[in-house]
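Methods — Computational structure assignment.
A single polypeptide chain was analysed. Its primary sequence is given first, followed by the predicted tertiary structure written as C-alpha cells.
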Amino acid sequence: MTTVPPFQDPHKKKGSRPFIIPVFIPHAGCPHQCAFCNQILIADRPDQTPSEEVIAADISRFLTYQQPHHEAPQISFYGGTFLGIGKERILKFLGVATRFISRGQADSIRFSTRPDTITAAMLDLIQRFPVRTIEIGVQSMDDTVLRLSQRGHTALDTRRSVKLLKERGYAIGLQMMVGLPGQDESSAMTTALEIAGLLPDFVRIYPTVVLKNSRLEVWFRNGTYEPLSLDAAVAQVKDLYGVFRGKKIPVIRMGLQASESLDFDGTVLAGPYHPAFGHLVHSEIFFDKAAAELASETTPIHKTVFFVHPSSIPKMRGLKNANIKRLKTIFQIDSIELVPEASISEEILRVEIFKGPKQNLCT
C-alpha cells in the first residue's frame, strides 16, 4: 500500500491560494490524438517532450513567482498522459520534481493522465515519490461519446481507475467536457452525476472547441460536427456546476486556460472559447439567483439593493454590467445597487426591495 502525504485540499482552505508550478509535456504518452485535441497548441510548446534540464529550469523559474499568501508549491505535470510516457521518463521526471521537494522548495507532485493508464503496477512504480494529486481526463461517462471522440477508453476504465486511486489514498481530480461529438445535454448531465457519484476531490469542466489541425476541424468543415454556441455552453456548464456544488465537490476550473497560442487568430476555429468562461458561468448563476428573488414581485419596483460578498460583486454585475441591465429590463426596475457585505458567503446574495411608483432614475 502506498504511503501518500495526508491531503489537505488547498481549494477548500479559506483565504489560501494554491501555488501550482506547471510543467507541460505536450501530447506525451497519448496513444493517439483524440478528435478534439491539438495538444501542441494547447500546451504552448513545440511537439517534443522537454528534457530533465528544461523541466528543472521551468520549475526554478516558476518558484520565483511565489508570493507569501500562496500555499506550498505543487509541481504539476500537464499536457499529456503522464503514466503513458514510459517507465524511464516517468522515473526521470518524478525524480527531477522530487529533488525540489527534498530541498523544501515544493510540497508535492501532481499530474494528469488517462484513466486506462492507471493500473496497480503503475501505482507501484510511483509509490516512492511524493505524488499527492492525480487528475484523470474522463471527458465523458458515455461510451458512445467516448467512441465518437476517439478517446480509446471506456467509462469502466474511469470507474476502475478511481477505485485504484482511492485505495492508495491519492487526491483525485476528474475532468469532463461538454459539446463533444454525439453528446447532448442529457449525456453531459449523466456524466456529471456519475462523476459526482465517484466523489472526487475536485473537478474541471471544459467546453469543446474546434482547434486548427484537429480531427474536429475536418468534421466541422464538412458539416458533420457543430460546436455549442457560447450561450449554450455557459448554460450547460452552469447546470453541471450545480450538480457538483450540491455534492460539495469543488469545481476548480470552467473553460480552457487562456494562452497566447489559443488567443492567436486562427487557432480556435469555432466553439465556445472565451478567456473569462468561468466568470460567465458564475455571472449566470448570480443572475438566476437575483431573478428568483424578484420573480414573485407583482407591483412596480422602485429600487433593488443586492448585498453580496465583495469578491462576488463582478459576478453579480456580469461582463459589461450585463446582469444589471437584464434585471432592470425584465423586472422594470428603476435603480439597482450592489452593496459589498463581507459576512455573506461568496455564493449568496441578500435582497432588499423598495416598491413605489416608477421613476426616471439613472444608476
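Note: The domain at 20-275 is CATH 3.20.20.70 (TIM Barrel).
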